[in-house]
Write a structure and sequence with these properties.
Distance between the termini: 58 Å
Number of strands: 6
Order of helices and strands: EEEEEEH
Number of helices: 1
Strand order of the largest sheet: 5-1-2-3-4-6
Strand content: 25-35%
Radius of gyration: 27 Å
Length: 183
């Protein structure tokens, strides 16, 4: 296979180099020239996942979940198959004014996990040398405890956001997805 560049000129006249000629079909129009191929560094979107295959990754999803697992497969839509997947939940126990956040975290094993590509917000490779260290300022705790704390914090944030949107509405502002529904 040739390594063509996008800036290479088209091949003159005959078939492209490396194309096989069939001696029995010498009459008729010549076969159409082959399309140029992009060099490997020209990969875009999902093809960039090639370097991350079989590596341990951290994914942050649109709904806020954080998944850690080994990338085994992916497709053109960036749908991902993770093996040995764990979900990690964080709950802060410090106040927002503290310069260094402190809190608890827990892991829940899931095994094989299929993630739809459009739900991936952030993806990064995990440094295996630091993988066993707990996150700075956080201590590991039981899943039920951390999940309860995290859900309470989400409920407080949601109530605060609802209150803010109501106040903005009294001032004439519309929040996101708060417009009138026309039938």
């Amino acid at each position: 296979m040739e390594h063509l560049n996008i800036h290479d000129p088209p091949q003159p006249g005959g078939p492209p180099p490396g194309a096989m000629m069939n001696p029995s079909s010498s009459s008729g129009p010549p076969p159409p020239p082959q399309a140029q191929q992009l060099p490997p560094q020209m990969f875009t979107t999902a093809a960039q996942l090639l370097d991350l295959t079989d590596k341990k990754l951290l994914l942050v999803l649109r709904d806020g979940r954080k998944l850690i697992g080994i990338l085994r497969s992916w497709d053109q839509f960036a749908n991902l198959v993770l093996q040995s997947t764990t979900e990690r939940v964080f709950a802060t126990t410090s106040t927002p004014e503290d310069p260094r956040p402190r809190g608890l975290f827990a892991n829940k094993p899931h095994g094989i996990f299929l993630v739809r590509g459009e739900n991936v917000l952030l993806l990064g490779e995990i440094d295996l040398d630091k993988d066993d260290d707990p996150p700075a300022g956080y201590e590991e705790a039981a899943w039920a405890v951390v999940e309860k704390l995290a859900n309470e914090q989400k409920a407080k944030e949601k109530a605060k956001e609802t209150k803010r949107l109501k106040k903005l509405a009294t001032l004439g502002f519309e929040g996101e997805n708060m417009g009138e529904i026309l039938l």
